[in-house]
Specification:
Length: 205
């Protein structure tokens, strides 16, 4: 999988120079995903933590999910603190592959937020997958409007999204459940998207 990502990074000329080999940059991204901090990784790659942070975000789009036939998608949301603000993180997982299809951050948890999120999720799906959601009322109207077959459950296959949030929360323990200083909703969503992308890449390795 690393070889494939390295090849794609070179094809798209993500890094204009090879002063640091692309192989090293991709490896740094995977090391960060595995739990090492930017400052710890800089010791291994010989570059400052700011550069490692930049590499991580530049590589994320290489792992964007393909649009595919999907039988069922589990969706959920969880709270996260950034600076002095509490936001909601929405995520969708293919229950057959455990692939994260989409991540979104919103200031609230309304039916409109759910609609915008589900609309993006369906862009990665051919046909109409069953959408597994909890009993939150914010999903009622969007599921009807999008003409989705919704299944409301607490456990079962929907627990896969809970498992992924468990992985995410374990990773953010290094932040003490709060993102670094000066984080915004946009930078938090960028970090989460990169994290999900590298999670998907590890599934394929």
């Amino acid at each position: 999988m690393l070889d494939h990502v390295i090849e794609k990074a070179r094809e798209e000329e993500i890094f204009s120079r090879e002063d640091t080999p692309t192989e090293q940059r991709v490896l740094a991204g995977f090391m960060y995903h595995a739990g090492l901090s930017f400052r710890r990784i800089e010791r291994f790659v010989g570059a400052c933590h700011v550069a490692v942070h930049d590499w991580y975000h530049r590589l994320a789009h290489l792992f964007e999910p393909d649009r595919d036939q999907r039988q069922a998608v589990a969706v959920d949301e969880t709270k996260l603190d950034i600076e002095d603000e509490e936001v909601y993180v929405w995520a969708a997982v293919d229950v057959e592959t455990f692939e994260v299809l989409h991540i979104e951050v919103s200031p609230g948890r309304s039916s409109l937020d759910a609609l915008l999120f589900l609309t993006e999720v369906l862009k990665y799906c051919r046909g109409q997958p069953v959408v597994l959601a909890d009993r939150g009322p914010w999903y009622d109207w969007p599921l009807d409007l999008l003409e989705c077959e919704g299944k409301r459950e607490t456990w079962g296959d929907r627990s896969l999204i809970e498992a992924w949030f468990g992985v995410l929360k374990y990773r953010t323990l290094l932040f003490r459940h709060r993102f670094p200083h000066y984080s915004t909703r946009e930078s938090t969503e960028s970090w989460l998207t990169a994290f999900a992308a590298l999670h998907n890449a590890l599934l394929q390795s």
